[in-house]
From TrEMBL:
Family matches, as Pfam families: TetR_N (PF00440)
Name of this chain's protein: TetR/AcrR family transcriptional regulator
SUPFAM superfamilies: Homeodomain-like
Superkingdom to which the source organism belongs: Bacteria
Single Gene Ontology MF annotation: DNA-binding transcription factor activity
Cross-referenced InterPro entries: Homeodomain-like_sf, HTH-type_TetR-like_transc_reg, HTH_TetR
Record keywords, A-Z: DNA-binding, Transcription, Transcription regulation
Amino acid sequence: MSTSAEDLRAIALTEFATSGYAGTSIHRIADLAGLSKSSVLYHFASKDALLEAVVTPAIERMQQILESMASRPVTKASRREFIADFVDFLLQHRLEVHLFINQGPSLIDVPVVDRANELVQHLADFFASTAMSTEHRMRFGVALGGAAYMLVTQQTVGAVDAPDEEIRSSLITIITELLAPVPVSTHQE
């Protein structure tokens, strides 16, 4: 059976998220894939290049969500769409989110991690600029950060044992309720 670059990315993502970037070697990824280290290096020039390949799809998806959100007025409808997109992002990219939340501070000056941190800052800046009070900004932080952290915790300790669709529905409801007191524009709803 042939191991593809996509298979290597999946193995690397799991290892980076569970063992840590620093604790994962190209040799370990090769062993898990049943390949030689040189075979892995044929597909990815270095561990940094593999990390870049592993997390870039998540970064690009978050970039799309942020661009979509920033391109229109904040209304109840656009907020609902953002919440659904954000929850879908978290569910689809939970290992990448796990990697950034738990290892981001130790991966400073790694270009792909810097890109991810810039997006998180952009998200925070956007909501800070649209929120009218400290309480509103805190609601956004607790709602979005709490959802991300809950899924990271689920990944490591099994905090919620439910199908993804049930988790998705619950997270959308909870985030919506946490943000309900935060006013939005009244046009284009």
